[in-house]
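On clarity, I found the account of how folds are encoded harder to follow than it need be. Since the whole study asks how a given chain folds, the encoding of that fold should be made plain. The format is easy to grasp once an entry is in front of the reader. For illustration, here is how one protein appears when written out as sequence plus structure tokens.
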Amino acid sequence: MSAPTLKFSYAKIPNMGDLLNELILERIFHVPFENVSKWADWNLLGIGSCLSCAFPRRPSGFHPLWTLRHLRDCRRKASKAVWGTGFMAEPDAGAFARGGWLRFLAVRGRLSLRGVEKIQGEKLDIPLGDGGLLAPLLLEGAVRKTVEVGIVPHFREKQAPHVQWLRERFPEARVIDVQEDPLQVVRQIAECEYVLSSSLHGLVVADSFHIPSLRLRLTDAPAGTGFKFDDYYSAYGVEAPAFQVERDFLPDLAVLKKNYSVPADLVDERREEMRAVLERFLKEGNWLGSSLERGSSPGRPRGTAMD
């Protein structure tokens, strides 16, 4: 008899941050899964700025029958959980609360937590952190530092002139392409002494290895306004404003060393919380079939303040 398959929702695109979802389930938790996109199908919502997928807006011309059909469909499905993701922007008033069958294992930061609590109308006591903090668990053995500076542009900025300016400033730097094999991208980041990145998960992975990093702003090409970065850093209670790279205004490692403020002990604590809560969810097997299908009461999802 084949093992049950987890219905896993994440952006399946050639980008290290998104493909960390696959690596984590395959190499750390050894769980068979398939990528799905429809809300009615998934059991687990993974890493990315996709938390709004759990709270889609009501359609225009909202009618009570839409709500009844929606709730009926939800109650037929296996339990759904959110792990390590966050909002791309502050959620608006049109977001639709899902009710007790949507379980929050962890969200990326305090800003996303605040948004969820506002929509759901309840306080949550859950871990905060990006799932990418588990990156060190993907590599075997010690990683040797071979490069002083790693430059990690967002995949939409690989050809931006700003990358060349940075290479001129740091001639020995390694430019890391987040669209290459994701496991190799993780290793390449881990081998750096310092990381300069306009990619969120370039920064997350750097933090996971306790590598001092600097958040860069190169162009307007990446989606969003910077909310996801602020959200991520809010999990540590720190602020990390973006360094706007210009031809005549480039980063300085001395400033990076002085200003880097993500505490290593808190990173390790967040990682262990993120690992433990997902491991518990997978072992419980609630995603194999909804308790509602078996006729029991939906109750309150575990992992909330009422635990």
User: Anything to note?
Assistant: Residues 290-307 have pLDDT under 50 and may be disordered. Strands lie at 6-9, 33-35, 44-45, 80-85, 102-107, 147-152, 174-175, 192-197, 213-217, 243-244.
